Amino acid sequence: MAFNVNCAICVFKGFRLDERRNPKGLPREPATKSASHPDRRTEKEACVRHWARQTLGRSTVMGDSYDSVSEKVAVIFRELAGERSKALDGSVLPAAITSAITAAQVNENAGEKEILRKDEIAFHLTDWNSDAAFLVALHLFPERFTPAQIPAGIDLFLVHVPSHVIAAARLSGNSTDDIFADAEKDLTDLS
């Protein structure tokens, strides 16, 4: 079976879109999980496991590493930030943070279309909160991660984050040119 990129990119399967949108920057209600997808993290990690098996040839034994790296990051941030660490839980939409980013980007004369565009940018900058937490935790405490947890965390990050960053850049009018393409080609030519 070939890798289906749509299963690894956030497609909001576990959340109702109408609760994510808030065109006037008002406080958001947390998104509810659907009955068919009760745990987005489980779904995302299943997609990453599938991707790792199909694309990288890594065995499913790494599945335990995906779970343990997520828990390790949660423990580190609970130690550092207490209750505030819940803002880094990737299975919960960070609605208040997304709303704050949206509100900071719009002026009082903005129309609904502009507010929705800024809201979409904010979403793409906040949906990968647990992935960002992994990188920060790894930078602060590399010794606390096992050799199996590091590639698992990297897989989770690389499958989820790049599409969000590219979408946010495009929506904000920034370039999404691949400035590293030549270097990648040079490395590919070496093999």
Folded structure, characterized:
By secondary structure, the chain is mainly α. It has a domain at 62-174. Helix content is 58%, strand content 0%. α3 (63-81) crosses α6 and α6 packs across α7 (149-171). The protein starts with 16 loop residues before the first helix and ends with a helix. Residues 1-41 have low confidence and may be disordered.
Give a brief outline of the structure.
The protein is mainly alpha-helical and 191 residues long. Helix content is 58%, strand content 0%.
Characteristics:
single chain, 191 residues, disordered N terminus, flat, 8 helices, mainly alpha
Unreliable stretches (pLDDT < 50, length at least 5) are 1-41
Rounded to the nearest angstrom, the distance between the terminal CA atoms is 26 Å
| Structural class by secondary-structure content | mainly alpha
Rg of Cα set: 18 Å
Give the overall form.
Answer: flat
Helix-strand topology string: HHHHHHHH
Q: How many beta-strand elements?
A: 0
Number of helices: 8
Average of per-residue pLDDT values: 76
Largest sheet: none
How are the SSEs placed, and which strands pair?
Blueprint: H1 17-20, H2 40-56, H3 63-81, H4 95-105, H5 112-126, H6 129-140, H7 149-171, H8 181-190
Helix pairs in contact: 2-7, 3-6, 3-7, 4-5, 5-7, 6-7
